[in-house]
Amino acid sequence: MGMDLNGGISVWGSHNDGLLGLGYNVTHVESPTFLINNMKELSISDSHAVAIDLNGDIFSWGSGKYGELCMDKLIYCPKPTKKIYENQENKIQSIHNNSNLNITANVNVNGKLIQ
Length: 115
Known about the structure:
This protein is mostly beta strands.
């Protein structure tokens, strides 16, 4: 998975937990395949990915069995899914993944660390 200079994310390779972001039925892609655009930041672990778009909205996909997809529930997301915020103060500004711990650390617009 990678992000180009224009904020386009493409995926390739193999994964069974939805990390490719192309749906449950696609577990292998031979060459880079476009996934989503207009992103400004991408953070990848071995089981999930989180990206922030140019508007500051967060998208995540892959395994969320430990809650690492920022969806407020344990879930697998086979495609990039936008997080909906009830409180705009919690909107994410920066993201960081740790694949060894299966966590995603997020910093909101006020600089506060949140999940």
